[in-house]
């Protein structure tokens, strides 16, 4: 873990800014009615572009990615097993996104089902259960600190983080840090290689594909997570593009447009950023998205 922390702290010296892409993203974000940030990294070339990339944003459901790492860390240590049986009871029920809230009391389930629901369907009940199984916010945050992340934290149900919860909600991060977390998973460096591969597979089966993912051809593999509340909409995406993987995190907060409609400004921004990046890194690809209805938001 110490060597990983050192790699994260020194990795910036090996990256170079893509000034053309930086300029394009700056122009795109400039007119947003609220606060927007983005971090983009091409894993093949080591080029980056960043706007407000070290600004702290609410994660909403994207905090489920650090929770996922916490779960697999417990699996590695032997405290949990991937397929272990669990029993659902309705005292865990809460609203919001996901399917587990509709399970019958005393239903038999398993940890792998919780993980899949938490990531693919952004299930809140499964995520809070996973957070508990991972040792709670305190242990997950310690793991994040050990990995070298100073701003990404779980706030909800975490002693000592009540003020941060008031400011940011369930979790907080920066575009640069969360993109780096997904990069570590892609490079088999989060927990261990086998855990990283399993986490990446989970993140490659996302139900909510009407935002940034809608601008990437359906025949291209992606790994992602979305997080959305009224005044903050964010998206984390890794694209396994033909000419090299790239990762990006688009975040907003203080949104003036808080509508949950297809054309809400934060979602339009996510699509615009994603489309810009796809055609920037894959300029010869002529694919354009069809106009299809959005799925429900997480």
UniProtKB/TrEMBL annotation:
Known catalytic reactions: a beta-lactam + H2O = a substituted beta-amino acid
SUPFAM superfamilies linked to this entry: beta-lactamase/transpeptidase-like
Claim: Ribosomal protein is one of the keywords in the record: no
Taxonomic superkingdom: Bacteria
EC number, as in UniProt: 3.5.2.6
Beta-lactamase class A catalytic domain residues: 37-252
EC top class, as a word: hydrolase
Keyword terms: Hydrolase
Single annotated GO MF: beta-lactamase activity
Any one of the GO BP annotations: beta-lactam antibiotic catabolic process
Family classification: Belongs to the class-A beta-lactamase family.
Descriptive protein name: beta-lactamase
Naturally occurring in which organism (per UniProt): Arachidicoccus ginsenosidivorans
């Amino acid at each position: 873990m110490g060597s990983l922390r050192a790699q994260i702290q020194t990795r910036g010296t090996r990256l170079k800014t893509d000034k053309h892409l930086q300029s394009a993203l700056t122009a795109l974000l400039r007119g947003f009615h609220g606060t927007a940030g983005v971090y983009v990294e091409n894993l093949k070339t080591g080029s980056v572009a960043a706007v407000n990339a070290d600004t702290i944003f609410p994660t909403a459901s994207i905090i489920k990615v650090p929770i996922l790492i916490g779960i697999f860390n417990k699996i590695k240590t032997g405290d949990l097993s991937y397929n272990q049986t669990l029993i659902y009871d309705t005292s865990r029920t809460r609203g919001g996104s996901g399917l587990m809230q509709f399970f019958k009391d005393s239903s038999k389930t398993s940890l792998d089902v919780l993980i899949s629901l938490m990531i693919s369907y952004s299930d809140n009940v499964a995520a809070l259960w996973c957070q508990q199984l991972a040792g709670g916010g305190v242990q997950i945050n310690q793991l994040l600190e050990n990995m070298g992340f100073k701003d990404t934290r779980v706030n909800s149900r975490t002693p000592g983080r009540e003020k941060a919860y008031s400011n940011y909600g369930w979790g907080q991060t920066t575009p640069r840090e969360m993109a780096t977390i997904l990069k570590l998973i892609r490079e088999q460096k989060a927990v261990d290689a086998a855990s990283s591969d399993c986490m990446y597979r989970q993140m490659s089966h996302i139900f909510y594909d009407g935002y940034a993912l809608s601008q990437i051809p359906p025949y291209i593999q992606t790994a992602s997570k979305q997080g959305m509340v009224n005044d903050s909409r964010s998206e984390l995406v890794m694209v396994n593009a033909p000419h090299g993987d790239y990762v990006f995190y688009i975040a907003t907060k203080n949104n003036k447009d808080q509508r949950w409609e297809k054309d809400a400004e934060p979602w339009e921004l996510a699509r615009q950023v994603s489309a810009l990046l796809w055609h920037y890194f894959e300029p010869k690809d002529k694919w354009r998205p069809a106009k299809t209805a959005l799925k429900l938001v997480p």
